[in-house]
Amino acid sequence: MNRIIIQQVRIETGVKKVAGIVTETVTDLVTLVIEEGVISQVLKEDDAELVGKRYDAKGALLLPGFTEKHCHLDKSRLGTDWQAVKRVDSIVERFEMEIGELNRLPLSVAQRAEQLIQVSLQAGVTSLRSHVDVHPRVNLAYLDQVMDALGAHSSELKSEIVAFPQHGLLRNDSRDLIRQALKKGASLVGGVDPTAVDGDMKKSLDATFELAYEQGAGIDLHLHERDEMGLATFDYFLELVEKYQLQNKTAVSHAFALADVKGAQQKELFGRLAEQGVSIITSAPLGSMPPVLTLQEAGVKVHVGCDNIFDNWSPYGNGDILERVGRLGEMTNQVTEFELSRTLGFITEGLTPLNDQGEKVWPAVGDAADFVFVEASCSAEAVARRSRRVATMAGGKITAGQL
Ligand SMILES: [Zn+2]
């Protein structure tokens, strides 16, 4: 049997409150026993008799593995020389220029994807969603290379691929290529600004949903459009989720227009998003983030992804998802022990060591051994201070750092 024993692991066990307010997180040191990639025991006292590969976490805090919910493994220039971004007048000009620039880089798509995978693993990521360009200018070439890069890490990183018609699903008819990508291993249909890029919001979304329905795939749409234009897209998107019964299988990334709706209209729209299980993914952009806390209160699932990481669209971004969620915390004024501990959930699919009542819910026997070991006293500190990652572990295997 493949058994791993990790001693001196700090886990969160509860909270201290003063006058009903959480003032402190309580932790304990335990020994974790992992068998076949799953936690089999959480021991208060170490058992020296246990045979297996031993590690010493030296008091590092255990957190659930992070999820990077929005990146582009084919677009990052990581590993190549510094280059800033050229100004353009439109998104069309940007993506027309992008293909030539990417193809001129000295590293292949697979090599650059590998660089970003390494950065993600070091950041604590155990699960990742990547968009990959699929359109007539590149056919399935980028997809093949990203799949090769991810395939080499299949035991270290859970991944899902969004087949992304960056040049428009209709504008540069990419429908058949997207279909082929889904048959090859992508599990979601992507899309971008159906009005601004495709010029016909309803036709574009119809085609997107038809493809998803036909191939049993999910959907993750880039939507930067604002105000009435963006809100009309949300309205029709929700109509189609219902029509094709794609509840809990779709997401809208960026979703800036959700910041443009208030009052009763907001309540109605957010309620529909929750009801249809449409999740919202944000890169916590400075200035145009949707109201993530209000969305959560309405029952909408919200996730964070780094998105641009040193690519043709932005010279910024370092691939550190914990840093990104810390930024979200700052932007939404999350400052108390309780608020910061909840903020972690944006990068862990909502899984936090303590529940909203301050009771321990994780780690438990039977949970997957997908962890991050962090140099912090509690999750609140880790989020606020973007604490150093000591090691990342997936299925009981160290994938970055060391113990
Ligand atoms: Zn994106």
List the helices and strands and how they pair.
Layout: E1 3-18, E2 21-35, E3 38-43, E4 53-56, E5 61-64, E6 66-71, H1 91-103, H2 109-123, E7 125-133, H3 141-151, E8 158-164, H4 175-184, E9 188-192, H5 201-215, E10 218-223, H6 227-243, E11 250-254, H7 263-275, E12 278-282, H8 292-297, E13 302-304, H9 321-331, H10 337-343, E14 371-374, H11 379-385, E15 389-394, E16 397-401
Parallel strand pairs: 1-4, 6-7, 7-8, 8-9, 9-10, 10-11, 11-12, 12-13
Antiparallel strand pairs: 1-2, 2-3, 5-14, 14-15, 15-16
Helix pairs in contact: 2-3, 4-5, 5-6, 9-11, 10-11
Bound molecules: zinc ion (ZN).
Residues 70, 72, 131, 222, 307 line the site of zinc ion.
